[in-house]
Automatic annotation (TrEMBL):
InterPro entries the record matches: NECAP_PHear, PH-like_dom_sf
Entry's Gene Ontology BP terms: endocytosis
One of the Pfam families matching this protein, by short name: DUF1681
One Gene Ontology cellular component: clathrin vesicle coat
Domain NECAP PHear: 14-72
Identification of the protein by name: DUF1681 domain-containing protein
Amino acid sequence: MSSSTALEDEESMEHTLIVVRELSVYKIPPRSTSGGYKRGELLQSDKIWSSRIQVMSCGERCEISLEDPNSGGFVERNEAFDFNVALSDHESALSTLNETSRRLG
């Protein structure tokens, strides 16, 4: 096996960096000061979602996966579709930026 093939294999392997079994997402109210927030200050009624989160690396790419703990995915199909479209749009923008940089540089 050549060194370039070994490098390509290493870059194509996904590595799980962390798995958090329960992550809570809260609606953050506006603040009148420049100070930060503490977990104890957030109200349970402001909780908008609970999730499992997994962070993985694959070469230069880092992926963050948010999963519904009950179904393993999004509750609403439309939300899952919209999320995937947003990620795809981001990837397209990065690809365009990289292509432009390659042509100019």
